[in-house]
Amino acid sequence: MNDIRNIAFIGAGNMTQSIVGGMCKSGYPAEKVWISNPSTGKLDKMKSELGVNTSQDNLEVVNAADAIVLAVKPQLMAEVCDHLKQHIDNLADKLIITIAAGIRIPKYRQYLGDDIKIIRVMPNTPSLVGQGMSGLVADDSVNDADKSYVTEAFNGVGETLWVSDEDQLDILGAVAGSGPAYFFEFMDSLAKGAVELGFDPEKARAMVQQTCLGAAQMAKESDLSLEDLRKQVTSKGGSTAKGVETYQQRELHNISADAVKAAVNRNQEMAKLF
Ligand SMILES: NC(=O)c1ccc[n+]([C@@H]2O[C@H](COP(=O)([O-])OP(=O)(O)OC[C@H]3O[C@@H](n4cnc5c(N)ncnc54)[C@H](OP(=O)(O)O)[C@@H]3O)[C@@H](O)[C@H]2O)c1
């Protein structure tokens, strides 16, 4: 990592813990990381495990940093931003990064000022195990150096994908953000299918999770389309063909398309709440 800045995280929840853990693991110096949180338990843990700087005072960490990650729940964002706006004079000189779901960039301009530089990031929970898929979006307020800084930081917990606007980020959120839940639902249903036929539940889980991981790894390493990969493991007249036919008859692709649309709609409804 070439660009090392003082970076402050407001809120020491699950996402902050995974992002900071990943950044430190990939070589980001802990003494450049500042974290604030109202209660001390998570702060103490991160300080002792990683050696980062901690405080119960948001203003202290913001004053110490050039890049600020807003990582509180969306319903607390207005209050947290208002406090910063009241007490920090040079917010426009700092790079603001927000990971909150549902709050759009124009709203942050209302909260923090028209002149802020801001990047929205939508991480997902596999970031906790270093296999995240983070979506990023920014407007013209940020330059390429700011973009690569944030890209590198989030590459510490998985992969990053820049999208062109916030509508695209809603779609990314509905697929990558919510996706782990869809895959867990699908994995659970496959395991239950095996158990219903008399298979041991623990073995069913082991077999499903490894199959899912293996399929994802094959998809990542192959140049073939997902459809061609599926065809490759589906011999005509074989047992896989029968299984796939069952999914196709029940129109799995329509179910997935509806699920994504429903999650996008919900993202857009939530955006109106803030
Ligand atoms: N989890 C996900 O999959 C996911 C995915 C994408 C985006 N996000 C976004 O990431 C953000 C954080 O999510 P999370 O799952 O990490 O939530 P979380 O575990 O609940 O963490 C939020 C943290 O904020 C702290 N906090 C509360 N009030 C604060 C204040 N005034 N100043 C500073 N910190 C304060 C809380 O401290 P206490 O516990 O002491 O109250 C808590 O540690 C949310 O906006 C969410 O939308 C999450």
TrEMBL record:
One Gene Ontology term of the molecular function aspect: pyrroline-5-carboxylate reductase activity
Subcellular location: Cytoplasm
Pathway(s) this gene product operates in, as recorded in its UniProt entry: Amino-acid biosynthesis; L-proline biosynthesis; L-proline from L-glutamate 5-semialdehyde: step 1/1
Domain of life of the organism encoding this protein: Bacteria
Pfam families to which the protein is assigned, alphabetical: F420_oxidored (PF03807), P5CR_dimer (PF14748)
Binding site for NADP(+): 10-15, 71-74
Protein name: Pyrroline-5-carboxylate reductase
UniProt source species: Idiomarina seosinensis
